[in-house]
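This part of the workshop introduces the protein records we will be handling. To make this concrete, we reproduce a full record directly below:
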Amino acid sequence: MLVPLSWLKDFVDIDIEPKELEKKLFDCGFEVEECWEVGKDISNVVVGQVETCEPIPETHLHVCTVNAGEHGTFQVCCGADNVKAGGKYPLALVGATVIETERDHVTVIGVATIKKGKLRGYDSEGMLCSGVELGVSEDMYPGAGYNGLLVFPEDTEVGIDVKPLLGLDDWIFDVSITANRPDCQSIYGLAREVAAALDKPLKEIDLSYTETDVENEGFSVTVEDPDLCPRYIGHYVYDVKLGESPLWMKRRLAMVGNNAINNIVDITNYIMRELGQPMHAFDGNFLEGNMIVVRRAKQGEKIVTLDENEFELTTDNLVICDGVKPVALAGIMGGLNSEIRDTTTTVTFEAAKFMRDNIRKSSRALGQASDSSAAFAKGVYEYTTVIAMKRALHLIEQLGAGKVSKTHVDVNTGNNLEKKEMKASIERVNGVLGIEVPENEIKRILTNLNFEPEINGDELTIKIPAYREDMEDYPDIAEELIRMYGYDHVKPTFLKDCGVTMGGRNLKQKTELRIKRALCAQGAYECMHYSFFSPSDLDLLGFAEDAPERTAIRILNPINEDLSLMRTTLAAQMIHAIARNQKKGTLEGRLFELGNRFVPKALPLTEYPEEKATLCIGIFGEDEDIFTLKGLAENVADTLHISFKYEAATRTFLHPYRTAKIVCEGEEVGYLGQITYEIQDETDMRIPAYICEIDLSMLDKYYGKTPVFEPLSKFATVKRDLALIMDKTVTCGEVEDAIYSSCKYVTDVKLFDVYEGLPIPPTKKSMAYTITFTPKEEELTDEMISGFVDKMLRKLSFTMGIEIRS
């Protein structure tokens, strides 16, 4: 929020330097993102009077003698078409700084320092300036928009600094207002805080106006949805005289980022900045039926807003209507069909409180944002609504923009705008702060904040103004006290029931960190995604309508549809991550994510969902296959000192013959497989990809498992390679289990080759294994190994029809 210092001074006598005020605002809880002088780039520019002005032959230039008062008289060459003898203009002396522009004298390119020079053989000691060269717009000073010299009135004193004349000596504070303090999203609201911080009285804002006896007979306001609009005030103004606003108003609006339009519209913008209350003015000639109706939009109803955008509305949107049609999107923007025109003679002013959540949702859903919607989204109080209407009518009268009728309609739900009483224990307030704030300081601070405190022993009684709806209990009082008393008074101390610990990671954190490090050691990179995904991801993965993954929690107010569901699987985001990498030219990689899946016990939610820790691994590249992915899964098992088994399985998004479920101690804990070619095509993958998902929440019972040490054998291990021919339906895991169970000396079985094709029959495949035999009590001889191998082959042949490949 932009806050001019001069505007603040309307309400508080500020007698400190701007930088000190910036610190004061910081100290009482307001972040000043930036603080600058309006004319920070302008220096050493004074009022000069041209005494002589002679044209330079065969050029558009003039050589002028310029009187700068106490600074002296200078010869200056000038090319402006409005320079003349006797005129008073801004004169940049040698050494001055001004805004540098292109040759069009409009486009700003930086800051320039004026030097003594020579044009067409004539000395030039300085420069006569336009409004652009001083950073001044038409709204800040009349004539500043002309592509020529800025002209001062005849009675302007020669030689004085131009910055006070042009408002360039003002300061702007860019203050960040947090969502819990909407009462400060205005000049007047912040002035209340400044007055309290400086221990100065707050000047009352002028709300006076005079009503005439004129009445808009038959005018009515109906609020059909008071839950979305608890207060709506309308006031009729007639004999409207549309015209320019006075310079002081245009200048202030310009400094806070508003262009002047006309006196009626400018008043609504001025109120918005001064009091934080969005207002709207309807042209009375275009309000059909002489009425206003506040209601939910009808499904499919349309409106064209002031910026000429057309919107199709839903019943979630609130609209302001006349007797026939919508004339405004409530809290967001007025309709084009009721805007103020040159022909406007009567106006109905609107000031209302709209519920913040409805305005925020409508603004986001329609993609239509405005200063008004931003204010309502943070919160506007009914107290402000009432005084804003009075202030607007006061300005109408002050500017002579119209006459105030006695037709005033206030539709509300009966909320009391009087101060509410709150009692609190001083001991409990001090307990929150950990220090004892003196009673005289408590009274002083709360009095300055308009809380009217009374202290009776330990009991503190305050009266909360209607604009401080954030005040709910004694911790809020503690916050108000300490930000004004000073955070430097707080002393480090332990909470009442706290204890000192050594810190460090718990077992879950340590185990998950070991898993991550083990995967990183295998060349995998950790990635992190949002905890939300899109309904389209469920369709991409081909889940059936009754699949548990489709039982997902829908976000009430999602940023967009792609982030509208709490994720029930990590696979979708991993697939998108692999696709993104391939699109950007990364054609090989190993990725993993360790995050939570959110599994509701029932929908709609009646209790918090289960958050299940899950590991997802994705690999892609010409040298990657299902077996390297299995190796990474084995790496996880080794880290936990457990073992996995793999059984044939199917998944809708994985290759039907390259998919396995992961089993641990008889429980299915995950799956792995190759992503289908259909998904590869749909996501524009160029290289085959493989994915694995393991439910770590089912494995947490193994966290901290102690490995059992087995003494190293005194005898050398023996390895044998076997190439086996089997049906394509036989899995690697089945073969490995059979080999292990056939001989107690087998300690490792590794697959190193898979082959299909001639001379292997089409229904068969060849799989080659390296089998490691580890002796225990005695050395294993060749005869013993041959016996073990024969026993294996007999078992493989009998149980699965497997034969040795010759």
Remarks:
- The radius of gyration is 39 Å.
- DSSP finds 19 helices and 38 strands in the chain.
- The first helix runs from residue 5 to 8.
- The longest strand covers residues 88-101.
